Amino acid sequence: MPELTSSYVDSLAPNAASIKNGQGLVRKKSFIQLHRTENGELLFGQCAGSGKTPYECSVDFVAPENPVFRCSCPSRQFPCKHTLGLLYAYVEGQPFTPAQVPETIAAKREKAEKREENKVKQAAEGSGSKPKKVNKSALKKKISAQLEGLALLEKLVLSLIRGGLSAIDAKTLKTVQEHVKQLGNYYLSGAQIELRQFALLLGKGQDREQSYTYAVEQLTRLHAFIKKGRSYLTARSEDPELAPDVESTIDEWLGHAWQLAELKEYGLTEADVELLQLAFYSYDDQARQEFVDLGYWLDMAGGRIHKTVHYRPYKAAKLLREDDSFFDVAKIPLLYKYPGELNARVRYEEMTARPVIPADLAQVRVHAHRSFAEAIKSVKNQLKNPLSDKQPVLLLYAASLGVTENGQYVITDEAGGQLVLGDISSLAQGTLQLLPFLPPASLKGCSLLVMFEHELDQGKLVAQPLSVITDEGITRLLY
């Protein structure tokens, strides 16, 4: 069984309400029985419910990285509040009586083992088979539709450029929104999102003039995508066996949803990785029409800053599990990495947790960039690519963090190089106002996780701190 902590149990919950409800069951002393096996692989018990018969709930750690939750309650949430409450009771030190594995659970374990054996057997039998053949006819049809969609998008973009943004009226915006819908029929979901963002920028009424600069950037972004997308699709059309581009995000722009099996097939995985989350926040992405849960993690061995992204479409948001802050070190047997530059997206299927120790915080300092000039250079190199993530995040080591005479917050590197901090306007929350509350000891020899953005209307690169890390701990400024 992994080392259970409140943070780890929180990470298993589908949403904040289930965390509250699970903890509430412990406070109300709703658990009639609490048991554990001698080897600690199974926690089980009974929890009083609304009916006469208590619910039978259990959490099985026979595979520590992939716990199995079972409960006799009718809840559609998974894991339910009863199994979460069982874990919270254990974390809080409630007494669990040693007991044998119940026969019902033993039978379910046996069935699960047989299913796993069959999977391994099938995988072994298929390991020597030929690679899955590409359906050339279907691929050609899809590429043809995408090229047609690119031509339609190009015609719209060029007409908007020739007419000028000041000439865009309600009728033109309606035409843009109609094209947004049409792009979905051409398998161009990435372009669909960016075109919707363009419409949102120019649909702000009195703020429209302030949005012109960013609207121009959107058109530039779309034009770059049309050019690169057409070239890429033409190459794939001529050679259907051509492997996807694993260096850039062009496939995602073209609507491809990477499957974990694909990432593994193209070598985009890493075994036995430990990640430490340095920042987390959620926001409403109107262009995507989804809520987004975004976490930034430090690879404890490699030093790269990865991100986890969890999308919750508006229509299904209530049914989907929310991501949340994670305060332990995540031990991941197999990490899947998406194509990308700085802050490549990662995913995992299995994870165990361990508490953060002083050596982990010291490792953060080791991996932080010591030269601000070199860090900013890497940021600018990414921002030159119109299709890249426009908000790269880096870990910087600051010899000091202070305030200038005119009230600006500045961090200084070991060579004396300085970086002025600011709040990024596109983020819903500023963080500079929290810096005065930091202990004086944390203002020297600290590491900062910083998000960069080129604010076009101001003509400058803005750096906003997301968290401050010292040998004492991690202070998250964004929440």
What does this structure look like?
The protein has 479 residues and is α+β, with helices and mostly antiparallel strands. Helix content is 36%, strand content 25%. It contains 12 helices and 17 strands. Strands 6, 7, 8, 9, 10 and 11 form a 6-stranded antiparallel sheet that branches. A 6-stranded antiparallel sheet has the order 14-13-12-15-16-17. It has a 5-stranded mixed sheet with strand order 4-3-2-1-5, with helices on one face. The model is unreliable at 127-131 (pLDDT under 50). It holds the Pfam family SWIM.
In short:
This protein has helices at 6-12, 16-27, 81-91, 103-126, 136-163, 170-185, 189-201, 208-238, 250-253, 260-265, 358-367, 372-383, and strands at residues 31-36, 42-47, 55-60, 68-71, 97-98, 269-285, 290-299, 305-313, 329-337, 346-348, 352-354, 393-403, 409-412, 418-420, 444-455, 460-470, 473-476.
